[in-house]
Amino acid sequence: MSSTAVAPHLSAARPVRAVRAVRPARLAPRTQGSLRLTRRGRLVVLVLGLVAMLALGVVLGSVSAASDESTAGRTETVRVQAGDTLWDIASARAGSGESVQDVIDEIRAINDLSSAALLAGDQLEVPVAG
Fold first, then answer.
1. Which carries the bigger pLDDT value, residue 54 or residue 93?
2. Residues 93, 126 contacting (CB under 8 angstroms)
């Protein structure tokens, strides 16, 4: 039995249609040294940059905190006498060329004072006279 008798629609008289080849899309020509990042690649570069900046901030912050502690560690305790003011105590501790207001601010920061009011008998940590 021939194939024409079984399936007459598959006869040789029918021409075979040619399949057209699909051309790949043209890519932009690359210049030497150019780099094209995908969306994921850009995200990775951004995250790595942020991590590097965070690490740098932690390192610089720890160096800064260490240098502040070395100067703030030199204090002595003073008992406030009747009539003493923060200005009097700070002016006695201010070194040459140092602002009295800066010393007052430092005393307030060391002792966590919310105001400049002092009571006789209070004990204050003050910077060593310089």
1. 54
2. yes
